[in-house]
Design goal:
By secondary structure, this protein is an all-alpha fold. The chain folds into 2 domains: 282 residues, Orthogonal Bundle (ABC transporter involved in vitamin B12 uptake, BtuC); 138 residues, Orthogonal Bundle (Arc Repressor Mutant, subunit A), CATH 1.10.10.10. The protein has a 3-stranded antiparallel beta sheet with strand order 1-3-2. A hairpin with a 4-residue loop joins strand 2 and strand 3. The longest helix has 39 residues. It starts with a helix and ends in a 22-residue tail after the last helix. The mean pLDDT is 78.
Length: 465
């Protein structure tokens, strides 16, 4: 009974705590902040995909830093005319300055023929330097009350209001409509700009549209995470999504989801730990999802890539063993005369190991796995027999290897040993059309099922024969 009372008391304390109120979204301000950051994260994730594929991920960085002089000039203008600082005036100044920064990058790239990375560096440094100089001027004049300016630089998520949420929702709707309407045009712009130019598409106009969307997202993100950190929202979710899929539509969905979740988790963590700045916390959450995607991504993740490469290497080792078995039988003229033969004659596994420079233990492991797949029969004394299925795959492996050998000897003038070694590396990447072209080039007509070996085969006999 006493334990029950203690547990009930602890639950009551938890229910009244600030953390519980935060997790259950009981406060209006919590709901507003969460809605604003999630909308910002989704929009940034969608737009970041096109920036990443267009190879302009740092464009957002240049535009975000270019907003600082606009904000400073707006501060200075309101101070000079004696008016109170209003968010709308500051955001207009940031939008004008950011747009000028983005257009400057395009102008330097297209008309001055400066490389894009150099143009980004020039615009970022010049505009940000001008902003820092203007901020120092604001600090020295009487009317230059710069209280609140640091929130635009470092972000202050608790300052988000209902109007900010409405602005974020509006920008998300506009970006979604543009992507849905001009999806094909933006895709070709990202993947093949020369094709877009050849078809007469307005490439410059599409680039300007992309910059306009980046400016809009940057303006929305200034209060939440600041101009320094906003670039992270435009890059990290899209880069994380790239590890999960190669499909553009899926990449857009995953990037938007990761952006929204990162902002939500980061904003709530910043609210729980009052000393943690919101922008940095959101970026760190995004980095956590990036590391997870980098490790476990289903398409390009490190773990998946390692397992896939390991599987490919094992498949290649299977084919090498089947090919050696076939050549051993061919050298002894012991190939089965009928495809209906259940198993072939015996092949010594030690000879296979020597031919491939494998250890005997490793050769037994490969043979055991082939036996489990029904391609060979592994005897207790270490001899092998190809099954009917194994014989079919062995013939195909030998044919591919010899076609490539003969081609390299005839066309590349490689010697027998070099052709054999190089064919071991290249044969596993041949497509059916490559094999057809090799057959026509080497045999000058319809090639036989298995071409003759271009080098003499070593005759070995299994133990006991």
């Amino acid at each position: 009974m006493m334990a029950f009372d203690i547990a009930a008391t602890q639950l009551c304390i938890l229910a009244d705590s600030q953390l519980w109120r935060l997790l259950t979204l009981q406060d209006y301000n919590t709901r507003v902040v969460l809605a604003g950051t999630v909308l910002l994260g989704i929009t940034s994730g969608l737009l970041g995909v096109y920036l990443l594929l267009r190879k302009r991920a740092l464009l957002g960085d240049a535009i975000s830093h270019a907003t600082l002089p606009g904000i400073a000039i707006a501060y200075l203008w309101t101070a000079m005319i004696g008016q109170e600082k209003t968010l709308s005036v500051l955001l207009i100044g940031a939008a004008i300055s950011g747009s000028l920064g983005g257009l400057s990058v395009l102008l330097l790239r297209h008309f001055a023929k400066i490389r894009e990375d150099a143009a980004l560096g020039i615009v970022l440094s010049v505009f940000f330097g001008a902003g820092v100089a203007l901020v120092s001027v604001l600090q020295k004049i009487k009317q230059g009350n710069i209280a609140g300016l640091e929130s635009f630089i470092y972000g202050k998520v608790v300052a988000i209001t209902g109007d900010d949420v409405g602005l974020a929702a509006t920008v998300l709707v506009i970006v979604a409509i543009i992507i849905a309407t001009l999806g094909k045009e933006l895709k070709i712009l990202c993947f093949d700009i020369e094709l877009a130019r050849s078809q007469g598409w307005p490439v410059m106009l599409l680039d300007c549209l992309l910059i306009a969307m980046v400016v809009a997202v940057t303006i929305v993100g200034l209060k939440a995470i600041g101009l320094i950190m906003v670039i992270a929202l435009l890059v990290i979710p899209a880069a994380s999504a790239r590890f999960w899929t190669h499909d553009l539509n899926r990449m857009l969905m995953i990037s938007g989801l990761l952006g929204g979740v990162s902002c939500a988790v980061g904003a709530m963590a910043s609210a729980v730990f009052a000393d943690m700045p919101s922008g940095a916390t959101i970026v760190l959450c995004g980095c956590g999802f990036f590391l997870l995607s980098f490790t476990l991504g289903a398409e390009r993740g490190v773990l998946w890539t390692y397992l896939h490469q390991k599987q490919l290497r094992r498949q290649q080792e299977y084919l090498h063993m089947l090919r050696i078995c076939y050549e051993q039988l061919e050298a002894r003229r012991a190939l089965p005369s009928s495809a209906k033969t259940n198993v072939t004659e015996l092949v010594a596994i030690r000879e296979v190991a020597e031919a491939r420079s494998w250890s005997l233990r490793f050769a037994f492991k490969i043979a055991s796995e082939l036996d489990a797949r029904g391609l060979v029969v592994l005897r207790r004394n270490g001899d092998l027999q190809l099954t009917a299925r194994g014989m079919v795959q062995a013939e195909e492996a030998v044919r591919e290897h010899r076609l490539l050998e003969m081609y390299m000897m005839e066309q590349a003038e490689a010697d027998v040993g070099q052709a054999d070694r190089e064919a071991d590396y290249l044969e596993h990447g041949l497509l059916p059309e490559h094999l057809a072209a090799l057959g026509e080039s080497v045999a000058r007509g319809t090639p036989p099922p298995v071409p003759p070996s271009p080098h003499p085969l070593k005759i070995d006999k299994p133990d006991g024969i």
